[in-house]
Specification:
Layout lengths: L5 H8 L4 H14 L1 H13 L3 H17 L6 H22 L2 H16 L9 H18 L4 H15 L1
C-alpha cells in the first residue's frame, strides 16, 4: 500500500468531524509506542517545556548511570541508544531551544563519563558531531539565547 502525502492527508482530515478525528488519534496511538509518546507530549507536556526538558534530562542521567563501562564496545552501544532516545524527544518538541538544551546535557554527560571517551575514536567523533550540531542550531536562535548557550558550550569544550 502506498502512503499519501501530508497535504493529501491534511485535505482529507479536514472533511471529518471532531469525534471521528479523536477516534483516528486513539487508533493511531494503539499501533505504535512512538505515536502514543508523541500524543502524550502534545496533550500533557507541551504546555510546560521546561518541565519536559528536565524530565528528559533526568531520564538521560539515569541511563548514563546504568551504562556498561567494562569496555568501549558496550559503552558505544549504550551511548548510541541514549542518543537515539534524546533525538526522539527532540523531534517531539520541534523547538530549537529544547534541541540545544538536550544535546548540551547529552554532551556534558558524555564528557564526564568514566572511563574517558577521549581514548575511543568513535565516541570522540560522536561527541564532536553533536557539538557541531549544537553550534549550528545555536546560530539559528535569538541573540540572547545564543549568548547563553555559547557560554555553556564554551564551558563544555574547555
Amino acid at each position: 500500500m502506498k502512503s499519501s502525502t501530508v497535504s493529501q492527508l491534511k485535505k482529507e482530515l479536514g472533511q471529518y468531524s471532531t469525534d471521528e478525528l479523536i477516534a483516528f488519534c486513539l487508533r493511531l496511538a494503539k499501533f505504535k509506542k512512538e505515536n502514543k509518546e508523541l500524543l502524550t507530549y502534545l496533550l500533557f507536556e507541551a504546555d510546560d517545556e521546561n518541565a519536559y526538558i528536565e524530565g528528559v534530562k533526568r531520564e538521560m542521567i539515569i541511563q548514563f548511570e546504568t551504562i556498561n563501562n567494562k569496555n568501549y564496545y558496550w559503552m558505544r552501544k549504550s551511548i548510541r541508544k541514549i542518543l537515539k532516545e534524546v533525538k526522539k524527544y527532540i523531534r517531539y518538541s520541534q523547538k530549537k531551544e529544547t534541541e540545544v538544551e538536550l544535546l548540551l546535557a547529552f554532551c556534558l554527560q558524555l564528557h564526564t563519563l568514566s572511563p574517558s571517551i577521549r581514548r575511543d575514536k568513535t565516541l570522540q567523533n560522536l561527541l564532536d558531531r553533536q557539538l557541531a550540531m549544537v553550534r549550528k542550531t545555536i546560530n539559528a536562535l535569538h541573540e540572547d539565547l545564543q549568548f547563553d548557550f555559547n557560554q555553556q558550550l564554551e564551558a563544555l569544550t574547555k
